[in-house]
Design brief:
By secondary structure, this protein is an all-alpha fold. The chain has a domain at 1-15 and 55-85. The protein is built from 2 helices and no strands. The protein has helices spanning 5-28, 43-84.
């Protein structure tokens, strides 16, 4: 099954926002090398990053859950309509 266009758009928006937040985070902490990914952060920096992005992650998770429920409902309705045909 292909990824639904709406889910792909949601994931792309989240990725753009996380990228924006990463730039902001790096500006605020001069000890972080902007050229390295999150895996190269110290445990303290990684925890600060998790806290810094917690609201965005929660927002994304709520939106993804809501959209997934909508997609399941749409698929169930389509299946019912196909079965009735």
């Amino acid at each position: 099954m292909a990824l639904d266009r709406r889910m792909a758009e949601l994931r792309a928006r989240h990725a753009r926002e996380i990228n924006r937040l990463h730039h902001e985070f790096v500006k605020q902490d001069p000890t972080i090398d902007p050229g390295v990914d999150n895996a190269a952060m110290t445990p303290k920096q990684a925890e600060a990053w998790r806290q810094f992005t917690a609201d965005e992650d929660a927002k994304f998770n709520r939106a993804r859950t809501r959209l997934a429920a909508e997609l399941r409902a749409e698929n169930a309705q389509q299946a019912r309509q196909t079965a009735q045909s």
